[in-house]
Amino acid sequence: MVTAVRTPTAVDRIAEEWVDTIVDLNPTVGTYLGRTDQDHRLPDFSPEGHESRIEAVRTARAALESASVADDVDRITVADLGAELGLDLEADAAALHLRDLNVIASPAQEIREVFDLMPRAAEADWARIASRLSAVPGAIDGYVETLRLGIERGVVPAVRQVREVAVQARRHARADGFFSTFAGGAGDAAGESVRRDLEAGAAAAASAYDRLAEFLEGELAPKAGMDDAVGREIYALRSRHFLGAVVDLDETYEWGIEELARMVAEQEAVAKEILPGASVEEAVAHLEADPARKLVGTAALQRWMQETSDRAVAELGATQFDIPEEIRTLECLIAPTQEGGIYYTGPSDDFTRPGRMWWSVPEGVTEFDTWREKTTVYHEGVPGHHLQIGQAVVNRGALNTWRRQLAGTSGHAEGWALYAERLMQDLGYLDDPADRLGMLDGQRMRAARVVLDIGVHLGKQRPDGAGPWTGEYAFDFMGRNVNMPPEFVRFEVHRYLGWPGQAPSYKVGQRIWEGLRDDVRRREGAAFDVRAFHRRALSLGGVGLDTLRGALAA
Q: CB under 8 Å to 387, separation ≥6 — which residues?
């Protein structure tokens, strides 16, 4: 799957310089890449910091537009990086940074989450952690300054998001919250002086999050928007950002309703395989009562995740994919937070940090169903995110750092991961009807949130015809379309309301991936080889879906 080494071009140099610029402006990206020299710093989230980034975007875009294109690799880089830089400028014009607050992917989470990725084996690692902890107050203060400017200009997030993030901030600020617990984990790896610095840094970071909560509750919440919807203009921009493609939002909403009905019909058929004559709810209840399909405690969950992942890597690497040695390790971990959500972080550029699957288990959740979650491991691991993203990192012979590590969209990555779930069904890994019901449960959820996300933010008519969508109806609708504990449903819906356009990118991305495969199959006829299609598509690294379409059609 890895291509031959090519000589770097002028376009590659621009892309590499852009990566260096990003790392300088946002050191958390450097941590993700494994560049520890910036691990003592955090981004400048102030208005001045934002202006510095936008000026850098303009400079990089101008350089890219004037560069000579040497080959097809360059053409893809120019198309995709150019599109991303253009979207950055559109987002700036819409002042989206002034309302950048939500429960899952905003500076309020980014500042804390970077500590999950930092090395912590040696005293020098913990010394860098202590320095970065001491930088948290400045990062929070800059962020508050930006949100305060948003208040002045009337560009504010929805109050629901403000209140939820305030709860998160209060949790981190507690004496037994993340920062104190994290710093206390140094143990014998750090000397007395570093431990003192860690303790001081953790206290300062916790205090900063306490100040953030006070600002959110006291200043921003009274001025925040009452409507969860962002409207068509902003939504269309965010949809393009997450897909790397332009789609007809009204047609996609109607397709989402049809796809949801199709998933329900598939579930109903599989339910009868599990228990003759049973409804989906009855089949789920039957499976949930089966102790052989249940895990108790996060330790058991982690072991099962790891065993399931290791088996998939070994077997698929022998029969279906060329899996390089560098990415045959995937660490399955319980996240140090309790916000909800399951996510993947890619390997560092030198593979000293492997790819990791994280499960953020909400407080109070202690039992897990293997039939429900097997497909999740395939989604996050192999042949899902880990194969896709890890393969790009391996491919340094053909791809510059931006293409290997930073390029791509949610629609490309998450669409592939859902595509991979169906692929595992085709390969026989979900022959057990219970596991297949779990996969369909996830696919139904992804279809439901296409309808919910577009419905809420564009003010569409509800599927039941009872008027336009509201945030309150979203909770009821989601609860009826997933088999999840209320804690998960609550977090998921808050995520959709605060992160417009991202949730549909999974199912819409899958639709585009499947459509591209079918286009190539029709074009190639009897010569079509699905393994060759996968090899070719993944060798491109992360790209927007319009870029992928153009590359596969070339």
A: 321, 323, 327, 381, 420, 538
Judge whether 5 and 397 are in contact, CB under 8 Å.
yes
CA distance 378 to 380: 6
**Bridge partners of 334?**
359
Strands 294-296 and 367-369: antiparallel
CB 194 within 8 A of CB 120: no
Cα–Cα distance between 541 and 85 in angstroms, integer? Answer: 18
Number of other residues whose CB lies within 10 A of the CB of residue 283: 22
In DSSP notation, 217-277 reads IIIIHHHSBS-----HHHHHHHHHHHHSS---HHHHHHHHHHHHHHHHHHHHHHHHHHSTT
pTM of the model: 0.90
Residue that is written with structure tokens 């993944």 in the block: 538
Arithmetic mean of pLDDT over the chain: 94
d(CA 357, CA 329): 11
With beta carbons less than 8 A apart as the criterion, state whether 14 and 62 touch.
no
Q: How far apart are CA 73 and CA 78, in angstroms?
A: 9
Q: How many CB atoms lie within 10 A of CB 462?
A: 17
Residues with Cβ within 8 Å of 26's Cβ and at least 6 positions away in sequence, in order, are: 43, 53
The 10s digit of each residue's pLDDT in 101-149 is 999 999 999 999 999 999 999 999 999 999 999 999 999 999 999 999 9
Residue 47 tokens read as 């208005």
Contacts of residue 276, Cβ cutoff 8 Å, sequence gap at least 6 = none
Structure-token pair, residue 459: 């003010």
Per the structure block, which two tokens stand in for 393?
């990192």
Cis peptide before 383 (omega within 30 of 0): yes
Contact by Cβ (8 Å): 275, 282: yes
Q: What value does the mean pLDDT take over residues 237-251?
A: 98
Residue 59 contacts by C-beta under 8 Å, 6 or more apart in sequence?
none
Nearest-5° angle of CA 29, CA 33, CA 38? 60
Q: CA-CA distance, 314 to 449, in Å (whole number)?
A: 33
pLDDT digits (tens, 9 = 90+) for 246-287: 999 999 999 999 999 999 999 999 999 999 999 999 999 999
Q: Which helix (H) or strand (E) holds 510?
A: helix 504-524
Residue whose entry in the numeric block shows the structure tokens 């499976």:
287
CB atoms within 10 A of CB 43: 24
DSSP code of 461?
B
200: left (phi over 0), alpha (psi -120 to 50) or beta: alpha
- CA dist 461 to 260, 314, 382, 447, Å? 16, 48, 38, 17
Kind plus residue range of the DSSP H or E element containing 342: strand 342-345
3 state DSSP class of 382: coil
Short-list 351, 349, 430, 340, CA closest to 383: 430
Q: Which of 448, 442, 470 is nearest to 457 (CA)?
A: 470
Amino acid at 427: L
